[in-house]
Specification:
Layout (H helix, E strand, L loop, with lengths): L8 H31 L4 H9 L8 H4 L23 H16 L6 H10 L4 H19 L8 H12 L5 H11 L5 H6 L3 H16 L12 H8 L4 H14 L4
Length: 250
């Protein structure tokens, strides 16, 4: 057997576990949505809160009475909160791991993205840099099936708060790939009022970053060919106009 034909069982196991985790999260969120509809919640914020808390486990009687805890109440909370009960070396190892994740944010599955996004990337500047680091194509592959409830709004708010002229092309690419993910229209319709306003603000900033271009009559032949080549300024503007429609920005 050639070296390239060797099966990496550890990688397969990791991929399977991540897929199972993502599937479980989807089932929990879907069940929470159905419960919220049946309860006829009064507002979208209440509906959103129920769905985002769908992974939390209720406390058992022995947990309330001070008995031995069999399972964490919040399975997605960081384990670093119990550092004071462990040795200093363990705390140092966990701190080193967090720094490494922030330095190199490279999730291979949507489940890994959810975990690291909410556990390690707490500030918006860190989240913005992480999105630029991943890039649009990688994000599109990660969320090919579904971005996940609530996450699309967080991504748009992060981009809106920190977009810079130098990152305009990269941000357009991220928006384009997110618009190609599954259930995008549904996730877009579930944005809160604040998230929708951030989305509009993001596109206003992107429009303002496009410098006025001279007319074709005022361009030399060489300059005109550069304007019309793939990835050039005209292509950027066409993409922006397309995204305005996809994101339903008036």
């Amino acid at each position: 057997m050639e070296r390239n034909d060797i099966i990496d069982f550890r990688a397969l196991e990791k991929e399977l576990q991540a897929a199972l985790t993502a599937d479980e999260m989807y089932k929990q969120e879907n069940a929470a949505k159905l419960r919220a509809v049946e309860q006829r919640v009064a507002s979208y914020e209440e509906f959103r809160g129920i769905v985002l808390a769908s992974h939390l486990k209720p406390l058992e009687r022995k947990d309330k009475m001070g008995g031995k805890k069999s399972a964490p109440w919040n399975c997605h909370a960081t384990q670093g909160r119990n550092c004071h009960t462990t040795r200093g070396s363990t705390c140092q190892d966990e701190a080193t791991e967090i720094v490494q994740v922030k330095t190199l944010f490279q999730p291979e599955t949507s489940a890994e993205f959810y975990r690291d996004w909410r556990r390690h990337l707490r500030s918006k500047p860190e989240r913005y840099q992480a999105l630029l680091q991943l890039g649009g194509p990688k994000l599109g592959r990660l969320f090919q099936v579904d971005v996940g409830f609530g996450l699309l709004g967080e991504l748009l708010v992060t981009l809106a708060d920190h977009v810079r002229p130098a990152d305009r092309v990269a941000v357009l690419g991220i928006l384009h790939n997110l618009a190609s993910t599954g259930r995008f229209t549904l996730n877009l319709s579930l944005l809160s009022h604040t998230e929708r306003e951030s989305c509009r603000g993001l596109f206003r900033k992107l429009q303002a970053m496009s410098a006025p271009r001279p007319t074709k009559e005022g361009l030399h032949q060489e300059e005109q060919s550069l304007e019309e080549q793939p990835g050039g300024p005209q292509e950027e503007e066409r993409l922006l106009q397309e995204l305005l429609g996809l994101y339903q920005v008036n």
